[in-house]
C-alpha cells in the first residue's frame, strides 16, 4: 500500500489559524491525517527598523514584522 502526502501553508495569524482549522476539517473528511505541523514566528523587519531606530529608537517598533507560517503535512493511504 502506498501513501500520498501534501503540505498546506497558512500565515501565522488569527486568520491563518482559522483557515487551517477549516482546511483540516475538509481534509479529514477526505481521508487525510496530520503527519506534522511546524509553526514559524514572523521576523522583525530589520533594515527598516534599523533606519528608524537611528532616528528615534521607539520608531524602530513601527517597522513591524512579517507574519510567520504554519506548515501542515498531511498523509493519506492510497491503493
Describe this structure in words.
The chain is 33% helix and 34% strand. It has a 3-stranded antiparallel β-sheet with strand order 1-3-2, covered by helices on one side. The protein has 79 residues and is an alpha+beta fold. The radius of gyration is 18 Å and the shape is elongated. The chain has one domain (2-78). The chain starts with a strand and ends with a strand.
Spatially, the strands of the biggest sheet line up as: 1-3-2
Counting H and I runs of at least 4 residues, what is the number of helices? 2
Percent of residues in helices comes to 25-40%
Low-confidence stretches: none
**Sheet with the most strands, sense and barrel status:** 3 strands, antiparallel
- Using DSSP, what is the number of strands? 3
- Radius of gyration from CA coordinates: 18 Å
Overall spatial form: elongated
Helix and strand sequence = EHEHE
Count of domains: 1
Query: Structural class from helices and strands?
Result: alpha+beta
State the end-to-end distance: 6 Å
The percentage of residues in β strands lies in: 25-35%
> Mean of residue pLDDT?
81
Summary keywords:
elongated, alpha+beta
Task: Annotate the secondary structure layout.
Elements: E1 2-11, H1 14-29, E2 33-39, H2 46-55, E3 69-78
